[in-house]
Amino acid sequence: MTIMRLGRVQLRVPNWEESIEYYKNVIGLIETYRDENHVYLKAWDEHDHHSVILEKADSAGLDHLAFKVRFDEDLDTYEKKLNEYGVATERIPAGTRVAEGEAVRFQVPTGQYIELYSQIEKVGNGLPLVNPAPWPDGLVGMAPPRLDHLLIAGEDVEGTTKLLQEVFGFSMAERVVLEDGETPLATWLFVSNKAHDIAVIKGPNGGLHHIAFYLEEWSDIRKAADIIGKNNISLDKGPVRHGITRGTTIYFFDPSGNRNEVFCGGYIAYHDNPTITWTIDNVGEGISFFDKDPGERFTTVFS
Amino acid sequence: MTIMRLGRVQLRVPNWEESIEYYKNVIGLIETYRDENHVYLKAWDEHDHHSVILEKADSAGLDHLAFKVRFDEDLDTYEKKLNEYGVATERIPAGTRVAEGEAVRFQVPTGQYIELYSQIEKVGNGLPLVNPAPWPDGLVGMAPPRLDHLLIAGEDVEGTTKLLQEVFGFSMAERVVLEDGETPLATWLFVSNKAHDIAVIKGPNGGLHHIAFYLEEWSDIRKAADIIGKNNISLDKGPVRHGITRGTTIYFFDPSGNRNEVFCGGYIAYHDNPTITWTIDNVGEGISFFDKDPGERFTTVFS
Amino acid sequence: MTIMRLGRVQLRVPNWEESIEYYKNVIGLIETYRDENHVYLKAWDEHDHHSVILEKADSAGLDHLAFKVRFDEDLDTYEKKLNEYGVATERIPAGTRVAEGEAVRFQVPTGQYIELYSQIEKVGNGLPLVNPAPWPDGLVGMAPPRLDHLLIAGEDVEGTTKLLQEVFGFSMAERVVLEDGETPLATWLFVSNKAHDIAVIKGPNGGLHHIAFYLEEWSDIRKAADIIGKNNISLDKGPVRHGITRGTTIYFFDPSGNRNEVFCGGYIAYHDNPTITWTIDNVGEGISFFDKDPGERFTTVFS
Amino acid sequence: MTIMRLGRVQLRVPNWEESIEYYKNVIGLIETYRDENHVYLKAWDEHDHHSVILEKADSAGLDHLAFKVRFDEDLDTYEKKLNEYGVATERIPAGTRVAEGEAVRFQVPTGQYIELYSQIEKVGNGLPLVNPAPWPDGLVGMAPPRLDHLLIAGEDVEGTTKLLQEVFGFSMAERVVLEDGETPLATWLFVSNKAHDIAVIKGPNGGLHHIAFYLEEWSDIRKAADIIGKNNISLDKGPVRHGITRGTTIYFFDPSGNRNEVFCGGYIAYHDNPTITWTIDNVGEGISFFDKDPGERFTTVFS
C-alpha cells in the first residue's frame, strides 16, 4: 500500500473573491501561493506546500483530486497497473502547477480525474522540528489540521470502487446497498487507518458531493458550527453523527456552491475489519444517526 | 428572592407504559414512588424526593409546575402578594401528593397552574454527605443531574411575564419582540443564576412547549443524541446552539408527545445583566444559531 | 440575598510589566483603564467596567475584594447589619477608583478587606444587546468569560465564615473539618447558584490562596493548560477534578506569585443543599480527586 | 507495509484476582476465555478474539507482544527478512494459545519477545455488521475501543529501533536524543497512521514502561481519571498532554504494578512526516507539556 493520503483537491470556484476569503478566514486554510486564476492553500498541520487549489471558473465542481504516494517509483508501478487494468494514463510534467513534481493522471469510471504524485515542496506545519509546542499561534477560523477525504459521485459506483480496490488496494469500510442487497449506492474506502480516504456515491458523473477537513474533537465541531452561524454560511446538515464511520460532522457550502464537511471521530480502520453494510431503508440513519433524516439537499445536490 | 428553582413538573402521559420506560431508561430519571396513576421521578443529583410526576391521562400536556421556595413563611408572603396583585390562590394540603408539604396554587394569565412549596421529603443524591465521589455508579440513559427549566405557552405572554417579574422578582434575560419592537413573542426569565428558570411563548393557552433537563457539557449532548438515535426517539431539533441563552441543546418528544430538551451551557445570569432583545426576523438565529432554521414543528407543536 | 457576586479583586503585583502582559495575553482579560500604579481589567463576558485591578506593589497579595450588591440601598442595610454584628465599617467615596460608585469597606476576622458596592460604569461585553452572536471575535489567551470566586486564608476560618453566613446570608456548600470532626480547616460559601463565591482556609492572616476565573468546559481547561505550557507559566496543580465542588481546575501562578485558578463544572448549588463534609484524612481527595495528592505547595503557599 | 497493528500483549500479573477484576471492570475489557493461569480479554471495538492476555506470574512484566500482519504469507516473508538481518526466529504452532493461528517469534535487542501472526478467531465488536449503532450498550469502566501501543525498555534503544525500521518498515515519528544530539534516549515508531504503534526507551532490558489503550476524546480522559479516583488506582501522571505525539494521556498502575496508559489525540502520522526531535533538556516538556515535570516515577519505574 503506498498511497498515503488524499493529497490534493482542485476546486472550481465561480464566486472567486468571496471563496478565497472563505477558505482562508472561515475554514482557516493558509495561502501559500497565488496566480491570476489559482490560489494554493494548505491546512495548518500539513507539511506539503498545498492541499487545496482554488481555480477561477464559471461553475463549481472538482477539477481533479490527487493521491500522494510514498515513493517516486510508485508512479511507474501504478501507471503500469492502471494500463493493465485498461485505464489510460497521462503524465503531468513537474512544475505544471506550482511546487509539484511529476504526476500520473487518469480518469475513473465515475468521471473524475485522479492524479498520483510523490514530489511536492515541503513548507512545514508552522512548528519547529525540535521541541515543538502542540499547536502554533495565529490560527483562524475552523483551523482544521488536515484535508481528510472526499466523496465523489457518478453512475458507475461499482466501477470506480473496484478500480480503487484492485489497482490501489483500498479496502471497503462500509457500503450502502440498494433493495437487491448487492448493488452499491455508495462505498467508503480507505488505505490509511481512517474510516475513509475517498467515498463514491451514485450521482451525476464527475460530480463532487463534498470535500472534508479533519477536526480533532466534538468541541471543535461546535466551534465550527458557531463560525458557520457567525458568518452566515449555508449549512446543509449537522452537527450530527454519521452511522456510517461513526464520525461526527457538519456539511455546509462554500460561497461557490461546493459542499464542505468538517469531520471528527470515526473508528480506527484496519484492513482486516469486516465491511459494514447499510440497507437502503436505513440510509437515513447511516448518514444522520440522531434524526435519521439526511434532508433532501444532502442526496440531491452535487457540484 | 426566595424562589429557588423549578422544583417540579407534573406531565400528562397518555402513552403510559412506554412513557415510564422512557423517562427511566432513556432520560435516566430515578423512580421514587408509584401509584396506579402516577410515577414519581427524580434526576440523580437532586436531593428532593421528586421533580417529575408522570400522570396517566388521555392527552399529553402539563398538569402543573411548581417552584420550590426557600422558607416556609414564603408561602404566606407570596400568597399575600398574589392576592394583592389580583390573583386568586388555593392551598393544597400536605400529603395531597406523596412526600410533599403544603402548597399554594394559582393560575397565570397564560393558563398554567403553578404551585409554591417549601417542604418535600429529602432522599439524597446517591452520594454520601461525607467525602463523596463526583458521581454515583449505576446511572443510565442521558442521566441529567437536574430538571432545569420549562417553556410554557399562552396568549398573554406579557401578563404571565409581568406577574412573574412583579410578584416573584424574576429578571428577564432575553426576549423576542414582534415587528413593533415591543410586544413580546417570548420571554426568558430567571431567579437563579441560570439564563432561564422559566420561559413564556405565544401559543395555545395552558400549553407546554418543553421541559428541559440540565446536562453538564457538549459531550453529554452528543451522548444524549446517540441515545435518541439508538432508541428511535422522535428528534425535533439539534444538537444546536441557541442564540438565545447561548446554550447548546436538543429537542425531542417523549412517547406521549411532550417535548423534552436537554440543555447545557448558557451564560451565568445576574440580575444586573441587561436584557437581550431578539427581533422577530432573527428569531431563527435566536433558536437555532447554526442554521437559523428552527423548523416548522418547533414553533407550532405544543402539548 | 442581595449580594450578587464577587465583583472585584485588587491584586498586588511586584512584577509589574510582566504581570500586566500575563493578565492581558495569557489569561486574556481586557484592559479598560490604566494609571501609573494600576491597570483595570475585565473578563470578556462581564458588562461592568472592571473586575480585576492590578496594583504596583512591593509584594504579591490581595489588596481587597469586593462584592457587588443588587440595590443601592443595600449599602445602608449591610452597613447597619455589620455594625450590629460588631464590625466597623468605612465609606469609600465614589470615584476613589475609576468608574466605581460609593463602597462600604470592612475587615473580616481573617484579615482581608472587603468592600460592598452597587454602582460601577457599564462597558458591555463586546456583543450587541440585540441579536447577539454567542461570542465575540478577537478573544485571546484562556479568555475566561468571568471572574468566578476566590479563596482567602487566615487563622479564624470560623469567624469569617460565620460573618459571611450571618450578615450576608452565604450558605456553606462544603467544608473540611479537622480531626475533631468540627473545627473547619476550610469552608466553601455561596450566595449565587455556583458551588462557591468565596472560600476560606486556615493560613496566614490576610492571605490569598487564589483567585479563580470561570471557564465553560473541560476542553477549555485543556486549552488553558496548553497555554500554560506554551508560555512557561508556573503550574501548581492540574488539570484535575476537585472532590470538593466537583469542579475541574488548574492552579498556577501569575508572574508576581499570586495563585490563579481556571475552573469549570461543579454542581448547581441551592440554599437547601445539605452541606458536604470532608474529613481531614480525605482532604487530598477533596482537592485532587484523581491522584489524591494536592502537592505540598498547594497547602503551604499563599500570597 | 503489512504489519497492521499491535495485536496482542501478554502481561504477567502476580496480583491475580485483583488484576482480573481491574482489567475487566476498571479498564473495561471483555473476557473471552479463561484457563487456570490465563485470562483472555479484548477491547470492545476489536473484532479479534483477544488483545490482552493476563498470565498468573510471580512478578509483573511483559511476557511478549505481538503484531498482527495482514496476509498469511507475511509470516514467511518476515521470517526470511529477520533471519537475513541476523535475528533467530521460532515458529509457535497454531493453538498454542486459544483462538490463535501460527506465529513467528523472535527477540529484539532490548530483550522483548515479539510475535507475528495473521490468524486469530474473530468474535466481533458487539455490533451488527448491518446497520450498526455507533456503540454497544453495556460498556463498563473506561471502555477503550482498542489496545493502542506500548513502550518497551532496554539498553539498546538504537538496535531495536533499527530492526523495527529496517525489517518491518516502521517510520520514526519522534525521538528524544541525549546531549550529543544523536544517541536516542527513546524513539516513537509507527506503521499505521497513529503517532506510535510501539516506542522504545532506555531502561532495563526486557522492561515494560506501559501498555496504552485508545480513548476517543479529552472528555473520555476525564472519565477515566474519575474512575481512577473512584477506584483508588495508583495514578502516575496526568491528565496531561504529551509534547511528544501531542496526545493527551493518563498513566497509572494495574494492581500488579504494570503501568497502563489511556491515550487520545495525537496527530495523524504519515510516512513522509519529518521526524521530530526532542533534546534531553526538553524531555520534561515532551512527556508532560503542561508542567514540564514527568515526575520521578515516570522515568524510573518499569515492570
UniProtKB/TrEMBL annotation, chains A, B, C, D:
TM annotation in the entry: none
EC number annotated for this UniProt entry: 1.13.11.2
Keyword set includes Translocase: no
Catalytic activities: catechol + O2 = (2Z,4E)-2-hydroxy-6-oxohexa-2,4-dienoate + H(+)
Domain spans labelled VOC: 5-119, 146-265
Molecular function (Gene Ontology), one example: ferrous iron binding
Zinc keyword on record: no
Keyword field: Aromatic hydrocarbons catabolism, Dioxygenase, Iron, Metal-binding, Oxidoreductase, Repeat
UniProt cofactor(s): Fe(2+)
Enzyme kind, highest EC tier: oxidoreductase
Family assignment from sequence similarity: Belongs to the extradiol ring-cleavage dioxygenase family.
NCBIfam families cross-referenced by the UniProt entry: catechol_2_3
Subunit field text: Homotetramer.
Protein known as: Metapyrocatechase
